[in-house]
Amino acid sequence: KEIKMRLLTHNTLRNNTSEASKIKNNNIGGYPLKITATEIRVDDKNDVGENSEREITFVRSILGILDWSALVQGAKEMGFTTLPPALTEDLSNNDEFLKALYHVLMNIHLVRGVLTCPTTGREFPVIDGIPNFMLEENECENVRA
Length: 145
Known about the structure:
Oligomer: single chain
Number of helices: 6
Radius of gyration: 16 Å
Largest sheet: 5 strands, antiparallel
Order of helices and strands: EHEEEHHHHHEEE
Helix content: 25-40%
Shape: globular
Distance between the termini: 44 Å
């Protein structure tokens, strides 16, 4: 299979330019990036779901580090509106929900599109599932004068 950017990956990406390190409109450090998708791929739930117990364990182990609002935003921007606006304790303990969440995190891929920084408006292209975050030297936080 080709490499594609998952929604799980999007949950950790940010703009690392020095300009984006400023706080603006409640966004900290160029996060979360807005997704403008021109091509997505959704793997069949059954293709990946070979080991339900492992998938549930994996999702439970990352729930504490997921930025839920960024995940919901990213899913909506890719056309998926089924995630609840808040993650409750009941949902965190519901195996069927955790299996469905695994599907959202691992099987929805951004193939082509743009990731836009909420702080600076800088656009990062995504081509063949690979986001391009190459920076010019003067955009780096620790540039020597």
